[in-house]
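Hi L.,

You mentioned the student needs an example of a multi-chain input paired with its predicted structure. This one should do, with 207 residues in total across all chains.
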Amino acid sequence: MLVQQRSRSPRGLVLPGRFVRKGETFADAVRATLSEKVGIEDAVAEPRLLKMYDDPRRDQRGWVMSALHVLALPVQALADASGDLLAVDEAGRLADRRHLVFDHDDMLAAAVQRMRSHYEATPDPYRLLGNSFTLGQLRDLHESVLGEPLLKDTFNRRMKGYLTEKMVKGEPVREQETGGRPALVYVRSKDTELSQRERRRLLLPRR
DNA sequence: TTATCGATCTAAGGCAGGTA
DNA sequence: TACCTGCCTTAGATCGATAA
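Structure written out for the whole complex:
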């Protein structure tokens, strides 16, 4: 999670953000925040609106509404970003036990919960692995996001239903750098929008 | 330098028990 | 009864260490 140090009162760690200016949409403000405050000009993924926060008591400076957006990016894309990348725990709080100012702890937990629920139901829904990947890479990513180990066999069997082997010149592509038997490279099947029944079936198993 | 072996990894399939 | 799940086994492939 990328957090930033707020220099004005109340001081402390916050999620990146700013006020919406006259004539701006939320989308404009999100893009401007990424550009001006984080240093990301061209995000490969679109930020997703998650939740509105409108409790009049949430900010001592006055009545401030916040529109929480979520954007997931590979770590490499954040190499030059302004702020600190911090780990979160199982509950979606900062792993080092520090707290964010305002109600940003709740925002962080909500964002982590939403992201984990998406990774319960769809192979890499935020496309952090790009267009092609091995099952091992996919499982590592899902375990990282969910914060717990998964059953390898069941994960592979469930995910394969939503993946297609990557083919070049009629031959399946294999990843040679796994240290063992070359792993098959997969791409997402065209239809990865799962039905409610399929989503329940795809809920990932735990070790 | 080369061959061998063990460790490690993925892929695939079988099987028994559980469940809708 | 068909399907799903978890566990297990076997095979194939690579890498690094080690002996000849």
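You could point out the following to them. Helices of chain A lie at 26-38, 104-121, 135-146, 152-160, 196-202. The two ends of chain A are 25 Å apart (CA to CA).

Best wishes,
N.
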